[in-house]
Request: fold
Amino acid sequence: MTALDSQHFAVLTLPDAEKQPLSIRAKALVFHDPRSRELLDFVERVAPSEAPVLIHGETGTGKELIARHIHFKSGRKGQFVAVNCGAINENLAESELFGHEAGAFSGATSRRIGWFEEADGGTLFLDEVGDLPMPLQVKLLRALQEQEIVRVGSRKPIKVNIRLVTATNIDLEQAVDAGHFRLDLYYRIHVAQVRVQPLRERPLDIMPLAEHFRSIYCQRLKIDSPMFSEAAVTALEEYPWPGNIRELENVVHLALLVTNGKMIRPENLNLSALLAASRLSQDKGQDKGLPQDIIREQLRRLLDAPGDSLFRDIEELLVHEAFSCSGFNQVRSAALLGITRNAMRTLLLNHGLIKPRDRVT
Reply:
């Protein structure tokens, strides 16, 4: 499953037995940067155990692939079952996880097996676990402690044997402090914790990943393989990649579609001009202090005369600027702030920046 090519980087891919309708980004991840190789080594040492694993990382860093690799290396014979907790209907969440009996509620015309039973003997991966509503967190904790579940509409407990792997892009300790996540559940799920660094913190992965996606998409598009120019390499390496590996994949894919000739140039990459300009401005203004220092100084001035709604005003400013900087894209603005898209949507609604009927983009 892990192979080392002639350029000395590890490529993580799914085994043939796990063929599923996934995009390329969920099938392969490159480990070349020393931080990434340390991460892979830690993951492979933890995988054979039964310990629950909590994977923390920004959107687009490859958390699900890490979870699949843990399952593959665990030797468990059951399925790998992935559940996006942020996408579960809150009213049907218990039924989704634990199943239900026929007639348990309106519309339950037949028995349904939940995700826990589907993963029996295998691995249950709960992505965006911080989005689980508090009542369901209590039931999840009990299921993990007792290793049994009860279908909705039933009183008969069912034993299950699962390896739990969870993932989040928010700080669960802060969520605990804020009263949004149970402390006992937090201790239960993070026996082993894996932090997947954002792409900007492992720059030596950028070009191996770009080359990997270039090779994959050239095969898919059935085109000759253009090379990256030196200027394109520089642009890729200096870009901050707020969307991480997912954004890099999309950039390479588009570059191959629009490139005419044998060389991929910076203008073919379609990098976010606003983010690139922001990065350049930051580099030129380093002698004026870090942005955090400038913000801190201005905050102190505001706190001298706070007014009646300082916190709300600052929160609105931050949300508005992130939304604007991301091209008014809710998913990307959430990634910029390191929060879930549901949390971002709530903030946008609270400050009147979107209407309730607006779709998530």
In short: The two ends are 34 Å apart (CA to CA). The chain has three domains: 2-197, 202-279, 285-350. The first helix runs from residue 34 to 46.
